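note to self: dont lose this again. the chain is below, predicted strucutre after it. 379 aa total, dont forget to put it in the shared folder this time
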Amino acid sequence: MTNPILPGATLGMLGSGQLGRMFTIAARRLGYRVHVLSPDTETPTGQVADVEVRCDYQDLDRVAEFARGVSVVSFEFENVPSETTEVCRKYCPVRPDGSVLHTSQNRYREKSALKEAGLPVTPFTLVRSLEELEAAAKQQGLPGVFKTADWGYDGKGQVVVRSEDELPAAWAKLNAPQAILEKFIDFEGELSVVAARGLDGQFVSYGPIGNVHSNHILDISVCPLLVPGSVAADAIEITRAVLDRLNVVGVMCVEFFLTKNQQLLINETAPRPHNSGHLTIDAHVTCQFEQQVRAICGLPLGSGELRSPSAMANLLGDVWDSGEPNWTAALRHPNLKLHLYGKQDPRPGRKMGHLTVLAPTVHEAEQTAKQARAALKFR
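---
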């Protein structure tokens, strides 16, 4: 058994956004130091980390120097080049392993691995030319969702095609060397299961968490999601199978479609904490970020017990359209927790923060979260 990395050690984070920030806050609460590496400076993570290293992910000499100064490396988003994690592995563990990152950052590799494991995924076909796109559309039927294989998130790199006439424009719009055409799922709802897996295979999950998106960006998450017990159990067991199959050490989110006949289909995975799991900071005994710290350090995982029904509402840059938000109005709700990410430029669609509400019921939590967010725009 590998010796655990104990408090007092230095942890390395690739990526410097809000997920790295919340990881760092959890790590420092446990007594760790954190170094962060990214191409940017004065970042959400850098504001709270012990050391912020600014360099390109492909400046491999600087990456090696960074890795020599930490006990373990993790990452907070998928767009980290494989070469970066391979260099880090020469000097310290990378958790989850770079192979997990390699699988998850390409939709075709991801869906193929899950399908080969016998797990339920949305039907898909590999596409590398307009001719292959037209053939795929005939094979699986339309409407469908045409997605780039690489570098897609929050609805980027995808377009819905509803007829054969739309195929040439969709191909030209994505302009990608490799893509997939997915069958359009007329789903009843979207849900996610965020889970952690330790070095010894210990598994702890949250959820299922119910999610509502707006313009392809997560808008509201609620927990617990009120679905039949069999659906909740299946979602957790499928998630366990995904983490075991990929040998994840760390935190992973599995996002699902729930069809109208109560069938679960995996939409995608994220090999790190997830936006839908932000409510775990306030609503659960151990949040997803502390679990990430525990897992990558080889420590026992914490309890995933839900302490209160909750709802999380994202705060996008649009909230700042009329000037500084009315924080006082939102914070009048005594069971509301405000989390801001330290970003200075509130662009439309940019995730600037979130708020979480605890309440006796999920419905009450969701309604209060929506009201509080709306109140931010009024003075």
